[in-house]
Amino acid sequence: MSSTASRDEERLLVVGAGPIGLTAALALRAKGFAVTVLEAEPEGRPRPGSRAIFVHRETLEHLEHMLHGVGWEIAANGLVWSTKRTFWGDKQVYERTYPALDPNVLPHSTNLSQTATEGLLLDACKRAGVEFAWNHRIESVTTSPDGVELTTDQGAVLSSPYVIAADGARSGVRRALRINMEGDRSDNAFVIVDVAEDEANPLRPERIYYYEHPAVEKRNVLLVPFAGGWRCDLQCRPNDDPTQFDSEDGVRRWVARVLPEKYADRVTWVSTYRFLQVVAETFVDEHRRVLLVGEAAHLFAPFGARGMNSGVPDAVVAAAAIRAATDDPSQARPAIEGFNETRREAALYNRDAAGLALAHMQARDLRIRIKRRTAAFLARVGDRSGTWLDSAPYGPRSRAKTDRRGTY
Ligand SMILES: Cc1cc2nc3c(=O)[nH]c(=O)nc-3n(C[C@H](O)[C@H](O)[C@H](O)COP(=O)(O)OP(=O)(O)OC[C@H]3O[C@@H](n4cnc5c(N)ncnc54)[C@H](O)[C@@H]3O)c2cc1C
Asked: For ligand 1, atom 11, which residue shows the shortest CA distance?
């Protein structure tokens, strides 16, 4: 890393080079700060699976404001599906096709693997002059009213007036500050599989949700296309042994039943999750010098795509708060507390929204089961209930659509 990085008081430190650390670095650069990102792993480290494939327009807009061209670059690399369909068993209960895209406006969303997005963000950071210190794992954190000292696993001590911690779900920074996560986790497993598209003979790119898919003994299945592949999510029952579905044979069996058979030979990633639904009790340290963002601050079930998409505004608001605190030190504390309140409120909203989506899909509650079945019956006889069946697996729409701060 640069020899000036630990001495220059105006150089700010970001911990973690995942999508949110990279975004935080871009946001700080856009606010005029010098930035170094400290990352535990080496550059080019393998990253797991497609994960945050669904990128909202608000995310693209935020990135575009930080560095001209980045939002458009991500959009150009992604795939926009224009049709979504929902089935109850083998009967379609909902279909919607969106009008053709306006090439002058960023798309409402785009779909690409998180690895591809991270690659584009890393290039953007380098263009913007962000410095990187790979192989620097933060092991301890000391905060004071004047700033932060970080110690790496190699014994280097780095100081900075403010630190943005984007070191993910197992955040060492959060643990060093003794900040707890609050919430629970889904008790049934989801098996998530990526398959590579057959580019010579691709499927129509449609997002399809199946309630009670008949080919997998009535388990729910979500199929989402992204640039170069498909993501297939299977919801296990609470008493299922997930190895039935995530072993090599198990994956091949169910993938060949929900997609054309050839996709069983095209599996690129398999993972099994019980989703945490947790939010940090505070997003800042006692001295208001460390700001937690992204999965260091909150973890949601992915339905509704709220993880990375809400981590991006975390980073935007954190950078603005640090700028305000630095410009007027007499207002530093309220500026950082403003970040804490706004983003924690957003995270609690997103956790609850993802929780509603999970409860709808799991249907443990008799009332939910009755409501779903009634809607499926009515949708088949032409009622508009199919709209609700289509949207409920993603939870209520983000308030970003109506909130002019656009911070959800
Ligand atoms: C199956 C699945 C599907 C998802 N789908 C979506 C979706 O469609 N849309 C969406 O918005 N979100 C989605 N998400 C969530 C998304 O993947 C996360 O929100 C995102 O990865 C969080 O990014 P992050 O930068 O906060 O953390 P991470 O991606 O975990 O990055 C943290 C980085 O910090 C580094 N690090 C860790 N500890 C230290 C340390 N002590 N010192 C230095 N560096 C450290 C790590 O090596 C890593 O590089 C999904 C998640 C899953 C699991």
From this structure: 308
- How confident is the model at residue 187, as a pLDDT? 81
Where would I find the beta strands (DSSP E) of 206-259? 206-213, 219-226, 229-235
187-273 CATH fold:
D-Amino Acid Oxidase; Chain A, domain 2 (3.30.9)
Instruction: Indicate whether residue 212 lines ligand 1 (CB < 6 A).
Output: no
The per-residue pLDDT for 186 is 84
Distance CA 241, CA 238 (A): 9
Which atom of ligand 1 is nearest the CA belonging to 169?
30
What counts of helices (H) and strands (E) characterise the chain?
11, 20
Domain boundaries, the chain: 11-73+108-183+276-357, 187-273, 363-399
**Interval between CA 94 and ligand 1 midpoint (Å):** 32
| pLDDT score recorded for residue 131 | 98
Over the chain (408 residues), the average pLDDT of each successive run of 10 is: 43 97 98 97 93 96 97 98 95 94 94 97 98 97 97 94 98 97 90 97 97 96 97 94 95 98 97 94 98 97 93 98 97 97 96 91 90 90 85 74 44
Q: Is 232 in the pocket of ligand 1 (CB under 6 A)?
A: no
Decide: helix, strand or coil at residue 226: strand
Judge if the beta carbon of residue 224 lies within 6 A of ligand 1.
no
Fold classification of 11-73+108-183+276-357 is: FAD/NAD(P)-binding domain (3.50.50)
228 in contact with ligand 1, CB cutoff 6 A = no
Give the DSSP letter string of 194-217: EEE--TTSPPP-EEEEEEEEGGGT
Any ligand 1 atom below 6 A from CB of 122:
no
* pLDDT value of residue 398: 58
Q: CA-CA distance, 16 to 66, in Å (whole number)? A: 19
Cβ neighbors of 239 (< 8 A, separation 6 or more) are none
Q: How far is the CA of 18 from the centre of ligand 1 (A)?
A: 6
- Ligand 1 centre from 307 Cα, in Å? 8
DSSP strands (E only) in 18-121:
34-38, 54-56, 83-88, 91-97, 109-111
